[in-house]
Amino acid sequence: MTSRFHLHDEGGAEPAHDDGHDSNHPHLHRHAGPDGAAGRRLSSRALSRVLALTCAFALLEALGGWWSGSLALLSDAGHMLTDSLSLLLALWVARIGRMPATDRLSFGHGRAEVLGALFNSLLLFGLSLFIVAEAVLRLRNPHAVNGGGVMLIAAAGLLVNLLAAWLLSQGAHSLNSKAALWHVLGDLFGSLAAIASGMVIYFTGWMTVDPLLSMLVALLLLAAAWRLIRQTVLVLMEGVPGHLDYNRIGLALAGIPGVASVHDLHVWTMSAERVALSAHVRIAAPRDWPRILAACQLMLSREFCIDHVTLQAEWPVPAPAGKPVPIDIVSEDKHE
């Protein structure tokens, strides 16, 4: 279905005519977050630092979980291990995303970050399901857990995860870095659950709390992973970004002085930090187009932070002068 936006009386003019190629790309760069290049550098530095932290502590926590027998601690170590892989992937695709456009990839490599975010979200989803399944087994067959050791190691893990989450939050301006941040937040929740589990076991001896808290954290991560999967699929399907209102954009374009109507409006995410727009704009006369085009570009940049714009003008064309040339149309085949 084609959406058409009108704010002005068209006065019964002749049908609009596509003028062919009066398209233009503005050079107005505005972003909701930090400057694009600076934001990407910030994300990469944060990812590198958190990767080093996560790799160092994942091994320590895995050994601690094996020594104490805690599923909560082992699940947190598993999160940190997958975080190391996801952070490495996030760092790699972030660098790919900065590569320039080519003849084969005219929009550049920005979608690599979206693919990385999708993979990380699926990894987080799968790990959460595994923890839920393991927790169910532990509920049926409880294991002895060293509560004091769990508290000590989980407290250290909580400090590491707090630092990692803070570092990533400074550069979480793309789906890729947000997916990595959710991995780390999952570890943070896991550390809190492990501390709570260790305290309960240490003071009461109730072993069942360990798998119950692990399951709770896993369910929270499942919800977060599902939200990220939906966001990345929306980008890959070239849907309208969630923070933008499609109808409001169309009406704003139609409200520019000199614009009669807008149709074939498309708004989509080009990369992690850039939104693109294309539309057909009907105007009264071609001489008005330069002024209208500049006004449309400025409005889209200021109000919606859309900096990659392609607009095609259309205007009524008068009937040709002179005698029309008749054309005979043969509607039936002739056979001898």
From TrEMBL:
Database matches in InterPro entries: Cation_efflux, Cation_efflux_CTD, Cation_efflux_CTD_sf, Cation_efflux_TM, Cation_efflux_TMD_sf, CDF/SLC30A
Positions of the UniProt region annotated as Disordered: 1-39
Basic and acidic residues composition bias: residue spans: 1-25
Major localization listed first in the record, in broad terms: membrane
Domain Cation efflux protein cytoplasmic, residue spans: 243-314
Domain of life: Bacteria
Family: Belongs to the cation diffusion facilitator (CDF) transporter (TC 2.A.4) family. SLC30A subfamily.
Name recorded for this polypeptide: Cation transporter
